[in-house]
Amino acid sequence: MRHLPALLLTLATASSLQAQETLKFREPARNPDVEGDIVSLSYRTVEIVTGGVKQPIDARRVVEIVPAASRKTADFAKGEEAMTNGSFAAAIERFERVATDARAPESLKQIASIQSVRCAAANGDDTGVVQAAQVLRARKPDHFFLRESYEREVHAHLALGNGAGAAAAIQAFGALATANGFSEWAKSVDLLQAAVAENQNNWRGALLIFRKYLKDADIGEIAALGEMRTLTALADWTALAPVADAHLKEAMGRRDCSPRILIASNTAKGDVDAGGGKLKDALLNYLQGAMVLNKGTPNPEHETAVARSSLTCSKLCAAERDRARRARYLAQAEEMKGELLKSYPRSRFKAEVEKAIRDLR
């Protein structure tokens, strides 16, 4: 009996260690992960008990919350499994159960709420994204994932052609940014305004916003991608060529170079060549961009590179007189179309790519 208190203490300690959650930060080399038990979280502060001490952390520093395996409910685990398998509707159903489960830890409920938004986005359900984002904020107005919910909602409104909805969400998000004095959120609001400008084909308006942030440590990559995208839309090859070359030169020999920047830069060079009528050179650059992804995460820049590879093969096929070379270009166009639809089943280029190949028949 005298050993029972010590045994109970050992079991309690083991249980606590099992239940630990992990906070991940920007620049992990300088800001190592923090493990512990999250006791509260909002978009302002995450409170975590680590080493027996409650520590408040600025929520804006946290880029990811990894829930403890021992604290995941059965529904949450099933939701993750369904999400991994691409069964997004089933995943949303599971995550919604977690979000409304009074017994689930608060951190798990909040992660489940944003996972519902992410699943709707992955499923191409823009209406579902808007609804899930609004429900998330209605449940908890100071939700940890508040910023992401607004960003995803705005892009979903734009995809639906709902300019008024996008404007209302941006206004609400901007008001919160101002009220809290969050400069990071203010930058995000600016980028959302750039997205609206792009949606309205106001390429120069979007370009002005992107160029404000090219040297910004937080959103410089997004700004650089936007600059190349808008210069292509403007067919400003004189400006685009040196921008793409500069990115590629900077990337030489660097292991930490952004794959998205690398893909976009090669694609931009392809756009410049295509704009100058050099379709074979353009194809080489598009294919170079398409190959960068390797084992990385699919992204819009890779989708564009693959689609333009297929479209350029179709153009080369249409202009070719030699039957054998024409057949090779057609086969390449089909192959790249297959790659596109395999990685991006709901690709925004699907109809265009399919029509280009169909017109060759």
Radius of gyration: 24 Å
- Biggest sheet, spatial arrangement of strands: 4-3-2-1-5
- Low-confidence spans: 1-17
Judging by the overall fold, what is the CATH architecture of the domain at 237-361? Alpha Horseshoe
The CATH class name of the domain at 237-361 reads: Mainly Alpha
Percentage of residues in strands: 5-15%
First-residue to last-residue Cα separation:
86 Å
- Mean pLDDT score: 92
Order of helices and strands: HEEEEEHHHHHHHHHHHHHHH
Helix content: 55-70%
| Large-scale geometry | globular
Structural class: alpha+beta
User: How many individual helices?
Assistant: 16
* Biggest pleated-sheet summary: 5 strands, antiparallel
Total number of β-strand segments? 5
Task: Give a structural overview.
Among the domains are: 17-66, Roll (SH3 type barrels), CATH 2.30.30.100; 237-361, Serine Threonine Protein Phosphatase 5, Tetratricopeptide repeat. α4 runs antiparallel to α5 and α15 runs antiparallel to α16. The protein has helices at residues 4-18, 74-84, 88-99, 106-122, 126-139, 146-160, 163-180, 183-199, 203-212, 220-233, 237-251, 259-275, 279-292, 300-319, 323-343, 350-358, and strands at 21-25, 34-41, 45-50, 53-58, 62-66. β1 and β2 (34-41) form a beta hairpin. The protein is α+β, with helices and mostly antiparallel strands and 361 residues long. 66% of the residues lie in helices and 8% in strands.
Would you kindly provide a brief summary of this structure?
The protein is α+β, with helices and mostly antiparallel strands and 361 residues long.
